């Protein structure tokens, strides 16, 4: 029996949930709802993250915890617990660790252990600029996925990603081509492409037509949803964090998050149909 690759699994989950929405988990103590600020830090973060997941799971196919938000609060144990909890209660949702790791040798091996064993991630974001050997420990995990930083949503990404090479391709296009044609032998590689540059997503799709895309930049960063969906075409995850997490700071924070998630899911599907 042929085992489904991560890339196929990513698309399958979108079809199963009829959603391409990924909800980012970036717990910021200064923005938590008033009712959660009187507990300990760890209890507040755990209650908030579980509450957001419960409120939005019906509208999302994936959740993306950003490790820095947990680490800065010494809340790694919460992130560890969340990995086990979501596998038990929401086993058909993708658990995507946003860590942006990038190193070689034994260090990369330990980063892979951290992502996949400690935090139970299905996939992890990586920086690809140290080459294939920095990705290999992650790609050796059957069924797991990686999303490589390709065309990021921040303005400073222009400093390197937009540089032209002798081939005529820009750096981000060269990376997309290499990921599609040389590195993706086991169907485990996706790319990060910011919604703030939909025309560059079109260029990425030209070089990497089969890879799943993780697309930040919709919501608080103001990316063009219609242009982004049209450029991405298929097998993509639209990530939104702050616009959903902090839709309300009052007692209705879960209901507000659910409304925002439902609205964005519906908008994505309408954009896909146009």
Measured distance between first and last alpha carbons: 38 Å
- Tell me what portion of residues adopts beta-strand conformation: 5-15%
Corresponding CATH architecture: Alpha-Beta Barrel
User: What sequence of helices (H) and strands (E) makes up the elements?
Assistant: HEHEHHEHEHEHHEHEHEHH
- Averaged pLDDT, please? 95
- List unreliable stretches of 5+ residues: none
Helical element count? 12
What would you say this structure looks like, in words?
47% of the residues lie in helices and 15% in strands. Helix 2 links the parallel strand 1 (21-25) and strand 2. It is of the alpha/beta class. The protein has a single domain (6-273), classed as TIM Barrel (Alpha-Beta Barrel). The mean pLDDT is 95. It has twelve helices and eight strands. It has an eight-stranded parallel beta barrel, surrounded by eight helices.
Please sum up the structure shown:
The protein is an alpha/beta fold and 274 residues long. The protein has helices spanning 6-17, 41-56, 67-71, 76-89, 105-118, 132-139, 158-161, 171-183, 198-207, 225-232, 242-245, 253-273; strands spanning 21-25, 62-65, 94-101, 123-126, 145-151, 189-193, 213-215, 236-240.
Layout of helices and strands:
Layout: H1 6-17, E1 21-25, H2 41-56, E2 62-65, H3 67-71, H4 76-89, E3 94-101, H5 105-118, E4 123-126, H6 132-139, E5 145-151, H7 158-161, H8 171-183, E6 189-193, H9 198-207, E7 213-215, H10 225-232, E8 236-240, H11 242-245, H12 253-273
């Amino acid at each position: 029996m042929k085992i489904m690759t991560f890339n196929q699994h990513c698309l399958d989950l979108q079809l199963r949930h009829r959603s391409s929405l990924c909800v980012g988990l970036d717990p910021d103590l200064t923005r938590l709802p008033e009712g959660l600020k009187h507990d300990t830090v760890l209890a507040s973060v755990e209650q908030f993250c579980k509450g957001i997941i419960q409120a939005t799971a019906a509208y999302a196919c994936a959740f993306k915890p950003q490790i820095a938000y947990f680490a800065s609060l010494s809340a790694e144990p919460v992130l560890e617990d969340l990995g086990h909890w979501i596998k038990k209660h929401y086993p058909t949702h993708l658990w995507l660790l946003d860590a942006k790791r990038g190193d070689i040798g034994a260090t990369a091996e330990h980063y892979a252990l951290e992502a996949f064993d400690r935090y139970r991630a299905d996939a992890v974001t990586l920086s690809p600029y140290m080459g294939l050997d920095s990705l290999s420990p992650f790609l050796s995990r059957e069924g797991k996925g990686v999303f490589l930083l390709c065309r990021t949503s921040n303005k400073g990404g222009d400093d390197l990603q937009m540089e032209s090479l002798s081939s005529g391709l820009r750096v981000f296009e060269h990376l997309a081509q290499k990921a599609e044609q040389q590195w993706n032998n086991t169907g485990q590689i996706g790319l990060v492409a910011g919604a703030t540059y939909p025309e560059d997503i079109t260029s990425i799709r030209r070089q990497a037509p089969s890879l799943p895309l993780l697309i930040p930049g919709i919501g608080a960063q103001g990316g063009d949803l219609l242009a982004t969906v049209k450029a991405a075409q298929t097998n993509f995850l639209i990530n939104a964090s702050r616009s959903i997490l902090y839709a309300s700071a009052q007692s209705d924070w879960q209901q507000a998050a659910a409304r925002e998630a439902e609205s964005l899911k519906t908008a994505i599907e309408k954009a896909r149909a146009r």
